[in-house]
Amino acid sequence: MSKQRLVILGGGESGVGTALLGKAKGYEVFVSDKGKIKDKYKEVLIHNEIDWEDENHSEEKILNANIVMKSPGIPDKVPLVKQIRESGILVVSEIEFAVNYTSATIVGITGSNGKTTTATLTHHILKQELAVGLAGNIGDSFAKQILEKDYPNYVLEISSFQLDDIVKFKPHIAVITNITPDHLDRYDYKLENYIASKFRIAENQTKDDYLIYDADDDILTKWLQEHPVQSTLLPFSLVKTIENGAYLKDKNIIITIDNNQIIMPTTSLTLEGNHNIKNAMAASTVAHLLKIRKQTIRESLENFQGVEHRLEQVLKINKVQYINDSKATNVNATYYALESMDAPTVWIVGGVDKGNNYEELYSFVNEKVKAIICLGVDNEKLLKAFGNMVDTIIETKHMSEAVKIAYKIAEAGDNVLLSPACASFDLFENYEDRGRQFKEAVRNL
């Protein structure tokens, strides 16, 4: 019998990880990337004798696949992807392909905001007592970890794009942190398509599995009423009393699962803001389900350092605090950032707009923002939205210039906040690149 042919579109972290796992499992593997494959990934492919191409998609070498793993960055609208599907070839995401080769307990975390912090925090708590990998949208690829380490447990940060291409994938514990309009450009500008995509995380779950979600999020609760899932529900809330799940009472997080209750003080959380209490609730609920000791959960919440590019305090210069929130790639994330500002703020914003509605930021901008620096190729929408609200609004296309302007405007006691509310691809490689350039520019002041 001839080998099954696995074609991988995209030669990044998930693509190369899948190629390695596929080869080890006996597939004939071909990696194709329309862009340039980074040298470090090329070296891995060459070293492992895996066939590849970049800056091109050779249809004759792709359309003879038995299965195609496509990188989450490639939209379904691409003609080649349509052609692959029309040929009846199965298209899957990395997590769908890889999960077939592990019997690990999987915690899957998705949501518009908070998923990286929640996934990193969950992993931070679990690793104190369990052997556990962290993968998905973060760190080393899931497929590669299964091949090299095969942990008995994984925490996966999963985007809606990865969930779009699952078939049988199901996490034992699923978390949906929240849903706000994001990436609508990939979902025909229909919010319900995006919501449905997020809820695929629970579509294969049974009553023996768990879904942890934000009960204060109207989009989530309404969807669950209209589209019930099989899983056991464990909601969390800041305002309601929750019988099975987590809630806040007198500055304590109270988590109850099958009458087994634990109580955590929020006063000792290292991360600030209500949204981080929610992230802590979700992570602690997962830990409680997996029988982590209460003392361990509490200590882990107290010593967790947070995530790079997420409200990261960079430096204080002349009594001005510089804050890197480059990970805020949508309006809701920036909402949390502005909400947590307790001083007059010079706000650096802009990039690739995904159909943003800036109205929910107006009250914070009026109250807290003294100047706006637009950092994008096209800032027209920002100028229209905020032009009348602040005395100073300036356009620039270079991070170093944006930071220098901010330095001139800010006075002792102010904050300078990079919280773009947009994707970064117009001027930067990705949000990490944008955040690192910001930090470098601040250090060079």
TrEMBL record:
Gene3D superfamilies on file: Mur ligase, C-terminal domain, Mur-like, catalytic domain, NAD(P)-binding Rossmann-like Domain
Mur ligase C-terminal domain residues: 309-422
Predominant place of localization: cytoplasm
Localization in the cell: Cytoplasm
Keyword Cytoplasm appears in the UniProt entry: yes
Listed pathway(s): Cell wall biogenesis; peptidoglycan biosynthesis
Highest taxon, organism lineage: Bacteria
Pfam families, sorted: Mur_ligase_C (PF02875), Mur_ligase_M (PF08245), MurD_N (PF21377)
Domain Mur ligase central: 109-287
Reaction(s) catalysed by this chain's protein: UDP-N-acetyl-alpha-D-muramoyl-L-alanine + D-glutamate + ATP = UDP-N-acetyl-alpha-D-muramoyl-L-alanyl-D-glutamate + ADP + phosphate + H(+)
Annotated residues for binding of ATP: G111, S112, N113, G114, K115, T116, T117
SUPFAM superfamilies linked: MurCD N-terminal domain, MurD-like peptide ligases, catalytic domain, MurD-like peptide ligases, peptide-binding domain
EC code(s) of this entry: 6.3.2.9
UniProt entry tagged with the keyword Nucleotide-binding: yes
Keywords: ATP-binding, Cell cycle, Cell division, Cell shape, Cell wall biogenesis/degradation, Cytoplasm, Ligase, Nucleotide-binding, Peptidoglycan synthesis
Top enzyme category: ligase
Stored PANTHER family: UDP-N-ACETYLMURAMOYLALANINE--D-GLUTAMATE LIGASE
Function: Cell wall formation. Catalyzes the addition of glutamate to the nucleotide precursor UDP-N-acetylmuramoyl-L-alanine (UMA).
Family membership: Belongs to the MurCDEF family.
Name used for this protein in its record: UDP-N-acetylmuramoylalanine--D-glutamate ligase
Organism (species): Mariniflexile aquimaris
